[in-house]
Amino acid sequence: MIEIIKVTDIITKFGDNIIHNGVNLSINEGEIYGLLGGSGSGKSTLLREMIMLQKYKSGDIIILNQSLKKISPKKAQKMRLNSGVLFQFGALFSSLNVLENVGITLKEYTNLPQKIIDEIAYAKIEMVGLSQNVAELYPAELSGGMKKRVGLARALALDPKLLFLDEPTSGLDPVSAEAFDRLILELRGMLNLTVIMVTHELQTINNVLDRFSVLFNKKVLFEGNIEEVKKFDHYALREFFKFGREYGK
User: Fold this and answer.
1) What is the pLDDT of residue 91?
2) 209: left (phi over 0), alpha (psi -120 to 50) or beta
3) pLDDT in tens, 82-102
4) Which of 134, 115, 204, 188 is nearest to 156 (CA)?
5) Cα(186)–Cα(137) distance, rounded to whole angstroms?
6) 3-state secondary structure of 165
């Protein structure tokens, strides 16, 4: 297996508040990898650090053989173009329609003519299971599940190697959540993605994740797969996997 992300001895502080105190984990190419943990465990903060929206105090994160601590602005921009991100509530631009939302990164970071941008955006909309008929709709006219899919289409617009998902099925009904989980599996296979997601949904953990880390007490308590965690006896893991839906971000 090829290691694509390596997190080493990460320490994160907000003032005097320590969020991470020596976090270590590794993610392999092609995996769907989960960042799990209880409320305030720092999983979303770690995700933000991976996508360079948050700085850590010490330690390092290596992504695609590039240290984020030493990365130049030019290489950071290239890294961002290799990373698609779906934020928890879609983070769509309310003043843009679906087609414009999906195509905005292409418009921003390429020199493609508008016709080609629109064609790619339509293809991505279909790729996430939506009809082209939604292209002219605005975010206010979409259901929660549709907003997530549009956000996912936008995240895939530049054909990234890495896909970061923050609570992708949060707020969805069970049927929609299961359909979204299946979509992630299909896209991983279709596009050869490495997927990193924050989640607390037990259905997703069981059915989608190849491996995961559980953050607890400012460190990684466990790293492995669902079968391995069943053999790891710790009260925090018993609570999390029994009452997973109570443990949000």
Assistant:
1) 81
2) beta
3) 999 998 766 888 899 999 999
4) 188
5) 25
6) strand
> What torsion do the CA atoms of 105, 108, 112, 117 make, to the nearest 10 degrees?
40
| pLDDT tens per residue, range 145-159 | 899 999 999 999 999
Q: How far apart are CA 223 and CA 141, in angstroms?
A: 40
- Picking from 171, 198, 163, the residue whose alpha carbon sits closest to that of residue 45 is 198
Residue tagged 């299971």 (tokens): 129
Instruction: Report the C-alpha gap between 74 and 129 in whole angstroms.
Output: 34
Q: Is residue 239 over pLDDT 90?
A: no
Say which amino acid occupies 77: Q
Q: Which helix (H) or strand (E) holds 180?
A: helix 174-191
Contacts of 51 (CB under 8 A, 6+ apart): 80, 83, 85, 164
pLDDT at 173: 87
Q: At a CB cut-off of 8 Å and minimum separation 6, what does 42 contact?
A: 12, 19, 20, 23, 215, 218
User: What is the residue whose two structure tokens read 């650090």?
Assistant: 49
Report residue 229 as tokens: 């965690």
Element (H, E) at 220: strand 219-224
pTM value is 0.91
